[in-house]
Amino acid sequence: MNNATTIGNAFEIDEIKHVVQLYVDGFQGGMEKLQEAFHKDAWIFAVDAEGILATDLISARFERWANSYRKVTSRFIAVTQAGDVASVLLGFDNSDNLADSWVDVIALVKVDGTWKITNKTAAHSTRAAWAKPKP
Q1: What mean pLDDT is predicted for residues 46-59?
Q2: Which of 3, 6, 18, 78 has its CB 3.0 to 4.6 Å from that of 89, i.e. a possible disulfide?
Q3: Measured in Å, how far apart are the chain's first and last C-alpha atoms?
């Protein structure tokens, strides 16, 4: 995991980054990791390279993601926490093909002492301006 800019008092930054890293690691055959990272009702909003928006319950994508075995690395750009809510700006970089990378804004909530991702809003790296991966 890379260092991230911390905004506010992200005193639980390690726990927040751990949950987000579970999501990234889920692409290596980690269905259980995806289920642990995301709230069961979490949603995704994603704009692809052509500018087309797709929305879905994230759990509907778990099987495809876990079976993709994409070599993805996390690039934590910023982490913000305000009590029991947090957000992460994440570079979701495809190590095999940087042209197929994404930038995510991930929302999390802490319920009963556990952080869960509730929403992922993503843009293909070609639409991510300064946040896209550097070659």
Answers
A1: 97
A2: 78
A3: 18
